[in-house]
C-alpha cells in the first residue's frame, strides 16, 4: 500500500515538473517572440545614422551667384560702363529679392547687404556719376557679397594689415602729441572701415562690430575735444583700437602685430660710469672668491 502511494506521488510530481518545464519554455519562447521584434527595431534605430543638418544649398547657390554679379558690376564700374553697370545693379536687386540667405548670416547681415545694394543704386542714379563714390560703393557691395559667399576666407580680412599700419601712424602721432597727424590716421581708418563694414556685419557678431564702432567714435572725438588730450589718453586709445581690431578680424592674441620700435635709451656719461663701477666690483668679487677657493684646496 505504501509502495503504491509512493509511485502515485512520484508520478504526480513528474507530471507537475513536466508541465512547469513546458510552461517555462513556452513563456521563454513567447517572451523572445515579443522582444525580438522590439530588439530588431531598436537595433535598426541604432544603426540608422542621425539626420544631419543639411547646408543651405539654395542659399549658398544664391550667394555665389550674387558674388558673380557684384564682381561683374565692379568690372563695369572700373571700365566706366554706366549702362552695363546699371543693368547689373537691377539684376542684383532682383536676385536679392528672390533669394533667401537663411543660415548664411544674421538679420543684421541681410540688412547690411540690402543697405550696400541701395547705396550702389543711389551712387549710379544721378545724371553726373561721381567716380570716387561709384567705385567705393561698388567695392563695398563686392566685399559684402564675397563675405556672404565665403565666410571662412573673405576678402575683407586683407584690410587688417592696412588698419594696423594706420594704428601705428596714430601711435606715432600720440608720441609726438601731433593732433593733425592723429586726425589724418583716424580718417584713414574711417574710410577703410566704411568700405568693409557691411561685409563685417555679415560675418561677425553684433557686439564685435559695436565695439569697433564705439572705439572709432571715441578716437575721432579725442582730437575734436575742447581740452587737448593727454599723451596717455592717446596711447590708451591706440592700445584699445588694436585689441578691438584683433577681435573683429578674428586674430589670436599672441599673434605679432605691427608696432613702433622702442627708442634706444640714452644713458649718458654718468650712466656709463655707474655701469663701469658695477662691472669692476663684480670682477673684484669674482677674483677674491677664486683666490679663496684656491687657497682652501691647496695641499699642505
Quick rundown:
This protein is mainly alpha-helical and 300 residues long.
In DSSP terms (H or I, runs of 4 or more residues), the helix count works out at: 10
Helix content: over 70%
Helix-strand makeup class: mainly alpha
What is Rg? Answer: 40 Å
Biggest sheet, in brief?
Answer: none
Keywords for this entry:
single chain; 300 residues; mainly alpha; globular; disordered C terminus
What does the model show?
There is one protein chain. The protein is mostly helical and 300 residues long. Among the domains are: 57-151; 157-248. The chain is 77% helix and 0% strand. The chain has ten helices and no strands. The chain has helices at residues 2-47, 57-79, 82-98, 107-125, 131-149, 159-175, 179-203, 206-224, 231-248, 268-296. The longest helix has 46 residues, at 2-47. It is globular and about 55 Å long. Residues 5-9, 18-55, 257-267 and 293-300 have low confidence and may be disordered.
Which helices and strands, and how do they pair?
Layout: H1 2-47, H2 57-79, H3 82-98, H4 107-125, H5 131-149, H6 159-175, H7 179-203, H8 206-224, H9 231-248, H10 268-296
Amino acid at each position: 500500500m505504501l509502495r503504491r502511494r509512493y509511485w502515485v506521488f512520484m508520478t504526480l510530481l513528474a507530471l507537475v515538473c513536466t508541465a512547469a518545464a513546458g510552461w517555462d519554455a513556452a513563456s521563454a519562447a513567447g517572451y523572445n517572440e515579443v522582444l525580438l521584434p522590439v530588439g530588431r527595431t531598436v537595433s535598426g534605430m541604432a544603426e540608422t545614422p542621425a539626420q544631419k543638418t543639411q547646408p543651405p544649398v539654395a542659399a549658398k547657390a544664391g550667394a555665389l551667384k550674387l558674388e558673380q554679379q557684384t564682381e561683374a558690376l565692379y568690372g563695369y564700374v572700373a571700365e566706366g560702363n554706366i549702362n552695363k553697370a546699371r543693368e547689373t545693379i537691377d539684376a542684383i536687386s532682383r536676385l536679392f529679392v528672390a533669394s533667401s540667405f537663411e543660415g548664411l548670416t544674421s538679420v543684421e547681415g541681410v540688412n547690411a547687404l540690402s543697405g550696400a545694394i541701395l547705396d550702389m543704386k543711389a551712387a549710379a542714379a544721378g545724371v553726373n556719376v561721381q567716380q570716387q563714390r561709384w567705385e567705393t560703393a561698388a567695392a563695398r557691395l563686392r566685399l559684402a557679397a564675397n563675405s556672404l559667399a565665403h565666410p571662412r576666407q573673405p576678402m575683407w580680412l586683407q584690410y587688417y594689415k592696412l588698419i594696423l599700419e594706420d594704428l601705428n601712424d596714430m601711435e606715432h602721432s600720440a608720441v609726438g602729441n601731433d593732433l593733425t597727424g592723429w586726425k589724418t590716421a583716424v580718417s584713414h581708418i574711417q574710410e577703410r572701415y566704411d568700405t568693409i563694414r557691411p561685409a563685417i556685419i555679415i560675418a561677425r557678431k553684433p557686439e564685435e562690430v559695436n565695439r569697433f564702432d564705439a572705439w572709432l567714435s571715441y578716437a575721432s572725438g579725442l582730437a575734436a575735444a575742447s581740452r587737448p588730450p593727454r599723451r596717455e589718453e592717446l596711447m590708451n586709445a591706440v592700445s584699445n583700437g588694436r585689441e578691438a581690431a584683433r577681435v573683429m578680424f578674428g586674430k589670436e592674441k599672441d599673434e605679432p602685430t605691427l608696432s613702433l620700435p622702442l627708442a634706444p635709451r640714452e644713458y649718458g656719461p654718468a650712466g656709463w660710469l655707474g655701469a663701469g663701477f658695477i662691472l669692476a666690483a663684480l670682477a673684484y668679487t669674482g677674483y677674491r672668491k677664486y683666490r679663496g677657493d684656491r687657497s682652501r684646496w691647496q695641499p699642505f
